[in-house]
Amino acid sequence: MFEERRARRHANHAFDHGEDVTRYRMQQKMFAIGDDYWIDDEAGDHVYKVDGKALRLRHTYAIKDMQGRRVATVQGRPMRIKESMEIEDGDGNRIALVKKALVSPVHDRWKVEQPDQPDLTVHGNVVEHEYTLERDGIKVAEVSKKWFRMRDTYGLTIGPGVDHAAVLAAAIAIDSMAHPGD
């Protein structure tokens, strides 16, 4: 138990100090469904394009790499008691389900269920874009607006050994559900 705690503390410390992390700049979902936007790396270069699909029964976002290949798709799941969005990889296989808790008296609670690995839990203020995603108590990603002066922009830092497309898609899903009218 002590070794496990120390390993978690070391992993979180390394993450907080920028060791082996990748930073992205994302735009808050300020556009209507059907609009596209870019996800940039920390140098400001376009890395992924988010293609919002218009005129569908459910919200859909296709995430494409610079060669135009679909790396992930985020889709709303209509007619559900709990609000959720499904994430598929580029081949159409379900890789995650992002869920918002049905009842949460103090703050929003979110979970990213992944079939082939432990779930991710979301901690922090989702509405203000200040939260972390953790797996078994170890931070794997962090979302924050504090790095940017631009109003509708936030950063996403992803740690090593994590599927970047899946985490980016989870952030898009959370943003879409937390800001449904934006």
TrEMBL record:
<dbReference type="InterPro" id="IPR007612">
    <property type="entry name" value="LOR"/>
</dbReference>
<protein>
    <submittedName>
        <fullName>Uncharacterized protein YxjI</fullName>
    </submittedName>
</protein>
<dbReference type="InterPro" id="IPR025659">
    <property type="entry name" value="Tubby-like_C"/>
</dbReference>
<dbReference type="InterPro" id="IPR038595">
    <property type="entry name" value="LOR_sf"/>
</dbReference>
<comment type="similarity">
    <text>Belongs to the LOR family.</text>
</comment>
<dbReference type="Pfam" id="PF04525">
    <property type="entry name" value="LOR"/>
</dbReference>
